[in-house]
Amino acid sequence: MQIWDIxxxxxxxxxxxxxxxxxxxxxxxxAGDQLRGILEHVTSNKYSAVLIGIVVTMLIQSSSAxxxxxxxxxxxxxxxxxxAIGVIMGANIGTxxxxxxxxxxxxxxxxxxxxxxxxxxxxxxxxLVKHIGSIILGFGMLFVGVGMIKTSIAPLSSSPAFVSTLxxxxxxxxxxxxxxxxxxxxxxSSSSVVIFQAFAVEGLxxxxxxxxxxxxxxVGSVMPNLLASLTTGRNGKRTALLNLYFNLxxxxxxxxxIGIFPQALSFIKGLSPNxxxxxxxxxxxxxxxxxxxxMLPFSDLIVSLAMRTIPLVDSEKRQAEERRLIxxxxxxxxxxxxxxxxxxxxxxxxxxxxxxNLAAAIDYFFDPTKEELYQKVLETEETVDFxxxxxxxxxxxxxxxxxxxxxxxxxxxxxxxxSNFERVSxxxxxxxxxxxxxxxANVKISEIGTAELRxxxxxxxxxxxxxxxxxxxxxxxxxAQAEALEQRVDDMQEHYIQNHIDRLMVEACDPLAGVIFTDxxxxxxxxxxxxxNIATALYDWKKxxx
Length: 546
Prior knowledge:
single chain, mainly alpha
């Protein structure tokens, strides 16, 4: 094999991988946010989760991308591990489509695909057409890459040294390990299986060797997810372990089946006689489907193993307790009056969390050495987001009940108040980020500015406390006090920002500190606005009755 053959092989692999990336990107862009939305609303039914995993992965042509989205959802609390394992299993089936496609010899049509895709991508302005052009362009690159790989490896069949090296893969365990390492390097099981197909078509690998390489490729495909999980929380790491454990058990299961029933390989070969590329593609798909069918009933055990590997800590137990509805249970069986009372209690609980989160963020802003507060604010924000979505969905369900005009009004206002509480928690996160920026830049707000922000923050918390009390107890006699405090916060913002401008004029304030001072004033003032929205949420009806 000459140096130019090695360069051509490298170029073919690179073009194939880039074509896969372009195609995957085009598919995701064409689908928009729908795929993410589909994954986000996976039900607790493990069978439907598998189906969704198959469909999404077939559409984006990347099991790693699907798995990473799942890791993100589990890490943020939008999906449970029991749901994630089903999607991961489905993704392992969906990713086999690439090998099925490349088993067709479409290299001759690749130039036409490249031309058509390029025209659609470069010269047509319609976004959907451009995305479809990217898909077609990616397909063309993929097949050109496969053609280059096949052409460049042809001389290897006459290289005794290379043939001798590949003979080591006749050992099943060596082939599995090579498949793991090779796929881990490429970070794509689809790509490695296609390359194994090309080697087999050129006679450099036997079908039996490719069988074990395919088994190893499935295990190696988890490498991107393991790396991505390093930056996630404990639930994200558990999700990556689900993928690893499933594929390890899958490899062990398939090795045992092949050892006990070697005629299974003869059956697969018989489906496509004299077409080793198709035989490998069929093996890839059949192995994936078989493993899911056998292991899906035991998916809960895989989840338990991941939980044992990374057990729950106290903070996670607290989150698990918080991220569930306590009062709004079986509301469909409750009479409207009782259901509304349950809903009010649930909204009140969410409000207390949002208020405490704002207080913690303010505390952290003035003392950023309290690192535990930063993590607490982020975790509580995720809990508040979860409760916002869940409570709102339950309130929509409750709206289908026959209720009086008064109860319907209260229900609609509770939906609005949950959004107000969620925004307060959002501002809490913003405030912690202001503190981080100051800390990272090693910049401090002046003593005068700090004192002003403390006074404003105290006024905002007082406004929020009174407003929540007005809402929870319908103490409209306190509404004037809340509105007076909110006006005081508005005046503070105007006065303090003018003071800040005066300090800037005499260069008594660091520019970055000045920007954050202004942003902090704005966020605090918006929190007081949300507080008044909460206080007056039920007042319109009360006022209308007098």
